[in-house]
Amino acid sequence: MNKVNIEQMKTRLLQQRAELEELEASYKESSKPVELDQSKVGRLSRMDAMQGQQLAMEAARRRKLKLVNIEAALRRLKTDEFGYCLECGEEIDCRRLEFDPANTLCIDCAENAGK
C-alpha cells in the first residue's frame, strides 16, 4: 500500500470517527427513560417508545464498537501495521480496506473466522 492510499485511509477513518461521535451525541436525546404513567401515555405508545429505546441502545453499542475498531486502525497506521491481517500477517486487499478501512482480517481469515 502506497503513501497516498494510506493517507486516504487515514482521512476516511477520521471522517468516520467524527460522524460516529456526532451520532453518539444525538443518541443521548433518544435514550431518555420511557414514561411509565399509563394515564399520560397509552400502553401501545409506551411499548413503541420502549422498543425505540432498545433499538437506539443497540445502535449505540454498535457505534461504540465501530469507534473502538477505528481507533485501533488509526493506531496501526502510526506503527506501519495497517493493511496487514492480524491473523495471518498477509497484506489485506486494498479493495477490502476501501470498503472498510477498519478491517483487521484478510478475506481468507475472515471467511475462516465465520465458520
Give the structure's gist in a few sentences:
The protein is mostly helical. It is 67% helix and 0% strand.
Please describe what this structure looks like:
With 115 residues, this protein is mostly helical. It has a domain at 3-82. It contains four helices and no strands. Helix 1 runs antiparallel to helix 2 (43-78). The model has no long low-confidence stretch (mean pLDDT 86).
Secondary structure elements and their pairing?
Elements: H1 3-30, H2 43-78, H3 94-99, H4 107-113
Helix pairs in contact: 1-2
Structural class: mainly alpha
Number of β-strand runs:
0
Number of helical regions: 4
The description of the largest β-sheet is: none
Strand content: under 5%
Q: Portion of residues in helices?
A: 55-70%
pLDDT < 50 stretches:
none
- For the termini, the CA-CA separation is 29 Å
Order of H and E elements = HHHH
What spatial form do the alpha-carbon principal axes imply?
Answer: elongated
Mean pLDDT: 86
Cα Rg: 19 Å
